[in-house]
Design brief:
The protein has about 525 residues and is of the alpha/beta class. The protein has three domains: about 60 residues, no CATH class; about 170 residues, Bacterial polysaccharide co-polymerase-like, CATH 3.30.1890; about 250 residues, P-loop containing nucleotide triphosphate hydrolases (Rossmann fold, 3-Layer(aba) Sandwich), CATH 3.40.50.300. Helix content is about 45%, strand content about 15%. The protein has an eight-stranded mixed β-sheet with strand order 5-12-11-6-10-7-9-8, sandwiched between helices. A hairpin with a 6-residue loop joins strand 2 and strand 3. The radius of gyration is 48 Å and the shape is rod-shaped. InterPro entries: Bact_polysacc_biosynth/exp, P-loop_NTPase. It comes from Streptomyces aurantiogriseus.
């Protein structure tokens, strides 16, 4: 169970929608990318449709029955418009249209794909919409399909008349032969036969006298003035809206998959511990590791505030032994440990900075070590092997290296016990990355509290959860976290010049020599 944190997330709101919006707005690059893609798509679509035109012609389909003799028959039942619509879209009509447009028959399929035939509801009108790359071709195509459909329907009507009259002509021929035979036999022609012959002839005459035209063109296509579809402004607006939606979706997916610590609340939820300090950016400063007592930058004031909160949560006995450790990179943890020790020394009391890394980390080479002087009465109790560090106006603090030069956990723990067993009111311990060096867990079990240094936008929440579980299971006490919100460029330059964990270099060995048997020590400044 953790106590209240002195820091609250500046976006801490109970409204989940506002929190989700904050997560999405972190990925502004993806939102901008989606907007650019949408606008580009709208521009491409407008350019593609800029050379596409559609012309429309309409045909009134005429019924094949006698309009004056269809009493009691509804106009809708005289013509099947769904059938005529399918016929107008058929390959035969496309072949006729290709012939009218002086196109080879092989292009009939291409022309058929460009035409769209519709039938307005409750009407006997067919609408031909033809699309082409120029206004004139669009108008010619629409008129050609209307003409081709009328020609096809006229041919079908003529064929129907021919089929109907062929059977009647055969019956008339039979009756004429019968009348001629009766006349040769000098038999009086029966009136019934003559009436039947008269009716058949009249019926043939009625069928052939009917108009077999398929219909009338009620609207002739003309060349359109504007291309098909919306204009440039409309397409750009639609592309902007669609791109914004795409960017929001991409940002939401990215935020859902993002595992890095982005806020105070996420760090507290992963560690189950309060955030005791936020280190701001300090790009104007130099590359010096120790800034407390030497500069008055905002980052220095953040270290002083961190020292105050560490004393506050530690109780009246003081902070005791505090381990400052990072999940995977120890560079920022060394900076925080050194400046925290200087800030604690500035408040008064004896402070010891201990480097328990199994290998030399180069921390001694970056601290402003003081040349050897005879220890004062206040400094006489310092543990053997420790040296003084000049923290400027903050005063002095002691530095000791508890490393053993081996990655073995037991050996690292023995070195830590040797240094941490020395008396002292405040001890700040720094070690290698917690998740990559096994000795860090052994040190965490022997100190009074652990302070985790994590970087915003650089540390994974899974690493913090793993640290919380390991420290809790080992019996250690997790004091809280320190969030580094500064830009890492300045510190990365310093880290590149800093030797990695490995065998100690000659410069590091010469920077601090072990004390002699009488308890004195020498310091070499190079």
């Amino acid at each position: 169970m953790t106590g209240p944190t002195p820091f609250d997330d500046r976006y801490d709101e109970p409204d989940q929608l506002r929190d989700q919006l904050r997560r999405i707005l972190r990925h502004r690059f993806l939102i901008a990318l989606g907007i650019l893609l949408g606008v580009f798509g709208g521009l491409v679509l407008s350019v593609q449709r800029a050379h596409t035109y559609t012309a429309t012609s309409e045909v009134l389909v005429r019924s094949t029955t006698d309009p004056f003799g269809t009493v009691g028959v509804a106009a809708d039942n005289q013509v099947s418009m769904s059938t005529e619509q399918r016929i107008a879209s058929s390959a035969d009509v496309a072949q006729r249209a290709a012939y009218i447009l002086d196109r080879p028959g092989s292009q009939a399929g291409t022309l058929g794909a460009r035409v769209r035939v519709t039938n307005p509801q409750k009407s006997q009108v067919l609408r031909f919409e033809f699309t082409a790359d120029s206004p004139q071709r669009a108008a010619r195509g629409a008129n050609a399909f209307a003409e081709a459909y009328l020609d096809d329907r006229k041919d079908r009507n003529d064929a129907a008349v021919e089929r109907a009259t062929r059977a009647l002509d055969e019956q008339i021929d039979v009756l004429n032969q019968r009348l001629a035979r009766d006349k040769l036999d000098r038999v009086a022609a029966k009136p019934a036969v003559q009436n039947q012959l008269y009716n058949l002839q009249k019926r043939v005459l009625d069928i052939r006298s009917r108009d077999t035209d398929g219909g009338d063109v009620v609207r002739k296509a003309t060349a359109p003035d504007l291309p098909v579809g919306p204009g440039l402004r409309t397409l750009l607006g639609l592309g902007l809206v669609c791109g914004l939606l795409l960017g929001i979706v991409l940002a939401w997916v990215r935020s859902a998959l993002d595992n890095r610590v982005r806020s105070v609340g996420e760090a507290q939820a992963a560690l189950r511990a309060p955030v005791l300090g936020i280190l701001p950016s300090d790009d104007g400063g130099d590359d010096a590791l120790l800034t407390v007592g030497r500069t008055d930058a905002p980052r220095t004031e953040a270290y002083r505030a961190l020292a105050f909160r560490v004393r506050q949560i530690s109780g009246p006995a003081g902070p005791g032994q505090v381990l400052v450790v990072a999940p995977r990179r120890a560079g920022v943890a060394e900076e925080v440990a050194a400046n925290l020790a200087a800030a604690l020394a500035e408040d008064g009391g004896e402070v010891l900075l201990v480097d328990t890394a199994p290998d030399t980390s180069g921390l001694a080479a970056q601290l402003p070590l003081m040349p050897y002087e005879a220890p004062t009465l206040e400094e006489a109790f310092l543990p053997p092997g420790s040296v003084l560090v000049d923290a400027g106006v903050a005063g002095r603090l002691a530095f000791a290296a508890g490393g053993t030069g081996s990655h073995n956990t037991a050996a690292g723990a023995t070195g830590a016990d040797r240094v941490l067993s020395e008396p002292g009111s405040s001890t700040v311990v720094v070690t290698g990355p917690f998740l990559t060096h096994a000795d860090a867990l052994a040190v965490a079990q022997r100190v009074d509290g652990v302070l985790v240094v994590t970087g915003l936008d650089g540390t994974r929440r899974d690493d913090l959860r793993q640290m919380q579980e390991l420290i809790g299971c080992s019996g250690g006490r997790l004091l809280g976290a320190v969030l580094d919100a500064g830009r890492p460029r300045r510190r990365l330059r310093a880290l590149r010049r800093r030797p990695k964990y490995g065998p100690a270099s000659r410069a590091d060995q010469a920077a601090m020599e072990l004390p002699a048997q009488d308890g004195t020590f020498t310091i070499s400044r190079r």
